[in-house]
Write a structure and sequence with these properties.
There is one protein chain. By secondary structure, this protein is α/β, with parallel strands linked by helices. It has two domains: 166 residues, Rossmann fold, CATH 3.40.50; 191 residues, RecF/RecN/SMC, N-terminal domain (Glutathione S-transferase Yfyf (Class Pi), Chain A, domain 2, Up-down Bundle). Helix content is 42%, strand content 23%. The protein is built from nine helices and 15 strands. A six-stranded antiparallel β-sheet has the order 2-1-4-5-6-7, covered by helices on one side. A six-stranded mixed β-sheet has the order 8-12-13-3-14-15, sandwiched between helices. A hairpin with a 4-residue loop joins β4 and β5. α3 crosses α4. The chain is globular, with a radius of gyration of 22 Å. Bound molecules: adenosine-5'-triphosphate and magnesium ion.
């Protein structure tokens, strides 16, 4: 997969831009606050249909203008394609894929695939489970559109079920009459999602191990193990029916606890990834450097799994990560990017790998 060209109008501090990219390494360089990350955000916006920095679309529209447009040309192994996103303040955004309207936002995910890596990802091991769930969700959604649909349904059902739980004290009858319905819907989607997450991590874990070993040259073997919240062994999630039954059991036998807590206590919104080195928790026992290397390995693995599943290498978007890495990891990362397309932002281009240099000043790219 290759990002060829992007045309932007009124996005963040970019009034107008038309930028072409090389198939290999592209380096966006400039002082702080010039628009380096904004360009990566625009690229990622066409890949995911949403920003990685804000959940408020309005933030993306350039101050003082009433709408924005981002049009991205990319090539997969078959042909050159285009995704265009238009947004007018206060209105629904419009997305077109090869000039054909896409009605649902989720349908754009997985057409143009990217792996985003920013400094915050370096704390993926130390962070809370929400960040690790996010890691799985973005990676898996780009591979299997059906996963994202299931996840969206799950979140909707979860919202309804939580509302019902919170209203249970006041309206016990509605709770008793309908909780079973919502529990069974939730259990079903949870089981479907669990299987995807389990399978994904089995694949990713192998790549995490090989990247980590190559990078660190150590004999310690890392693993990334899926931790479903339903207390099943990870491999048991292969069996969707058994997993659904287990979730249903949990969701039907602890109503008082859930009412006390005011929310749903079991489900894929409580999952985690257990990252281990030599079978010990990396979160507790790994050094800071090992944790960062593991996080880097997780991001690289995201690209490897994507290539394996789709037969297309994704485009890597690196926001300011090189300055956060030491010489060994920098060299490793540079080596890894040799036969891939990568778009890198940096304030400090010296010591970077060679590639097309694009200078950024006040939202202008040259
Ligand atoms: N909606 C908007 N309209 C106009 N300008 C905006 C908007 N949103 C953000 N900006 C501006 O965009 C500028 C550049 O942001 P960006 O994050 O791309 O900088 P950067 O080049 O990545 O800097 P750094 O090196 O510090 O990360 C900021 O000064 C910010 O104020
Ligand atoms: Mg930046």
């Amino acid at each position: 997969m290759e990002c060829n060209q992007i045309r932007i109008r009124n996005f963040r501090n970019i009034e107008w831009a038309d930028v072409t990219f090389d198939p290999g390494v592209n380096i966006l360089t400039g002082a702080n606050a010039q628009g380096k990350t904004n360009l990566l955000e625009a690229i990622s916006f066409t890949a995911l249909g949403k920003s990685f920095r804000t959940s408020h679309d309005e933030d993306l529209i350039r101050f003082g203008s009433d709408g924005t447009e981002v049009s991205l040309d990319f090539t997969d192994s078959v042909r050159r394609q285009n995704i265009t996103v238009r947004m007018i303040s206060g209105k629904r955004r419009q997305i077109e894929h090869n000039k054909v309207k896409i009605s649902r936002l989720s349908d754009v995910v997985g057409i143009f695939r990217t792996v985003l890596f920013c400094p915050e990802h370096l704390s993926l091991i130390k962070d809370g489970p929400g960040e690790r769930r996010n890691y799985m969700d973005i990676a898996i959604s780009q591979l299997y559109p059906i996963y994202l649909k299931s996840l969206q349904r799950y979140n909707q059902i979860l919202k309804q079920r939580n509302q019902l739980i919170r209203g249970a004290e006041e309206d016990r009858k509605t709770f008793t009459d309908t909780i079973e319905f919502w529990s069974s819907q939730l259990a079903h989607e949870a089981a479907v999602i669990s299987r995807y997450r389990y399978r994904y991590l089995v694949k990713a874990s192998e790549h995490i191990a090989s990247c980590f070993l190559e990078m660190m040259g150590e004999k310690e073997i890392p693993e990334a193990i899926y931790v479903p919240s339903c207390h099943l062994e990870p491999a048991a999630c292969e069996d969707v029916d058994a997993c659904e039954k287990q979730y249903l059991e949990l969701l039907t036998s602890h109503h008082d606890r859930e009412i006390g807590a005011g929310s749903t206590l079991w489900g894929i919104h409580k999952d985690d990834i257990d990252i281990r080195i030599n079978q010990k928790s990396a979160r507790t026992f790994a050094s800071q450097g090992q944790q960062r290397s593991l996080a880097l390995a997780m991001k690289l693995a995201e690209g490897e799994v994507c290539a394996e599943v789709c037969g297309e290498k994704p485009v890597f978007l690196f926001d300011d990560v090189f300055s956060e890495l030491d010489a060994t990891r920098r060299a490793y990362l540079s080596g890894k990017m040799k036969d891939r397309q990568v778009i890198i932002t940096t304030c400090e281009p010296s010591g970077m790998i060679g590639g097309k240099v694009i200078t950024v000043e006040n939202g202008v790219y040259q």
